[in-house]
Amino acid sequence: MVNIEPIKLKHNRIERPFKGGYLLDKLQLVEKPRDGYMSESWIASTTKVFNDKKDSNYGLSKCVINNKEYLLKDLINKYPKEFLGEKHIKNFGVEMAILVKFIDSFSRLLIQVHPNKDYAKKYLNSDFGKTEAWHILDIREDIEERAYIYLGFKEGITREKWRQAFLEQDIEGMISMMHKFYVNKGDTIFIPSGVPHALGGGCLVIEIQEPTDFTMRVERKRLDGGKISEDMIHNGLGIEKMLDCFDYEGINENELIERYFLKDKKIIEEEKFKKVELIGEKYKEYFTMEKLEINKKIYIEQDKFCISTVVEGKGKLTYLDKDITLEKGDEIFIPEYNRNFTLEGENLKIINCYSPKV
Fold this sequence. Notes:
This protein has 358 residues and is of the alpha+beta class. It has helices at 22-27, 72-78, 80-84, 86-92, 117-124, 159-167, 171-176, 230-234, 239-244, 253-260; strands at residues 7-8, 13-14, 40-43, 62-65, 68-71, 99-105, 112-113, 132-139, 148-153, 178-182, 188-191, 197-199, 203-209, 216-217, 267-269, 273-279, 288-294, 298-301, 306-319, 322-327, 331-334, 340-354. The protein contains ten helices and 22 strands.
């Protein structure tokens, strides 16, 4: 029997086809931070990595309770009501309905797109697509070009133009068809399924998304020259269906900023804490995200499960008579059952991620 209480999770680093990891190592207090290809960390994950070279549980988060290691997914399957809540189960079953990640890019990610729910249902046997959002936690200052992203098609782009550039592997041509934006620490960007994008070099982001690993890539080689497999390009669906995954609507730069760069973030500030709504109610059909800054002890009441990450400072979480120490890089899953608890710390900064509101 496992007590239903907030759970501190083990770090869950994931190998990806782009170089990064130094800023993520620093966040997770790794003794000798460095860049490599373990450039993502999946948080409270019940989603497996789409990669046939790895074991069947690759991507699933683990925790240790009473000196025994568990998969978070197994605990949820055993205690679904206590972990996720009845309302969530009624709408999504025992699926978490979100996936949270840290992504750290020294080099640019490959140009990519993700499917919407209808496409995923039709071709990938999934109730979830992969709409996502990035919140920029940090940027690198010691690189040649400041941190940037590519996002969305420019006006006038057609499927045939994009297809031809892909077949010719005209990478610069494809890049020229997308908007480029320089980004700053604290920016939050919404990325709907179907919209082409690539995280540029120099960014550490926390990503919240639908709980799949469906990614269509249009580059056949990594930036270091390594080959990308056909399955990693089109998820086994073939080139034409991969191209059908894109939304070829082109919009101008100002309209794109208005649509996808999240502004006017709601702020609640009191003596003991500050709460910033990073991704608000407008996006509740997919997910929401908030940032807490805590200087004294505060009492928390919540009505749904929460994935929390400590991005700065130290402190503790207290549930009933149990204290959980918190430090930079810690990841906590708070079950729906645990509605009341306290947080305290000095300069403690936590990002809370929530599933769709239904």
